[in-house]
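Usage example:
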Amino acid sequence: MSVNARANPVLLLIDVQKTWSDPAWGPRNNESAEDNIAALLHWWRRHDLPRIIVQHHSKSPASRLAMGQPGCALRSEVTPEPGELLLTKSVNSAFIGTNLEDVLIANGWTDVVVVGLTTVHCCSTTIRMGANLGFKMSAVADAMATFDAKTLQGQTVPAEIMHQVELAALNDEFATILNTKDLIG
Amino acid sequence: MSVNARANPVLLLIDVQKTWSDPAWGPRNNESAEDNIAALLHWWRRHDLPRIIVQHHSKSPASRLAMGQPGCALRSEVTPEPGELLLTKSVNSAFIGTNLEDVLIANGWTDVVVVGLTTVHCCSTTIRMGANLGFKMSAVADAMATFDAKTLQGQTVPAEIMHQVELAALNDEFATILNTKDLIG
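Running the assembly step on the lines above writes:
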């Protein structure tokens, strides 16, 4: 694998929740993201490498990610198993309002491999902050997905462009960008 | 102005340093960014609203932003005046390794207007983290600039596309996106 297995790389699964198949979010890219996430999690479990599952609990009651909303539930592929840490967060960064930084430091885990949704919001923000805190971040491009967005001028930017451009912004500066096959192929 | 002047909005000037006119960075967009930043700073000074100037000091000696490198110097437009806070940082987020969060809280400053360079690295990361820490962030699109980047497939993404797509990612989720004329026009 491209990450250093001897460094005990952590698989950090961001917001792999049911809501993202709700058409209310609009068009998304990479419908294979959850399958690739499941394959990576399976591999990490088989090699007994550390896994941290992060679930978004919005504090806004109207949010589709508010606790108790059906879309807030974790997808079955990432149901935590014994020994797996489940963290909840209420903002984009998994490092804010959680003990993620402490957990990584206490265990000597310096390498973090990020998968999940969405590329441009919670994954990007967590990757940026992790890198700035001194962790060696990797992002698995084909195990992330995102949605169409609009420019200030009202033009729609297709989800795939949002995804690729955000990864180009992260590349080198914050993270190593990989695909699933680079890790477990 | 679009921000609430009664809330004492802080103008947060990110990395307005000489290096960004060095052709070594490659093609950039919005050559007017520094003029718009200067106009905003002038307006903020005239109205005696708070200003915080952030200067990047890379810890990598080879960086064009390492202390002592000519490009690390602040541009003359943002030379701090008495009473203006100058913070130095060594990572993208102006909230990491600085007392920015403490300063904002201690002064009751909840509204932060971000300008500077680059859009996709230090501005975006600071805006994301500020929003996640609970501050009301605004980004001034025409007072920011960024550079060409490459996708994983090696395709060049022009600086203007990087800029617009990053702002689309920030819009609504992390910040209100404005232009200079919305604030001081």
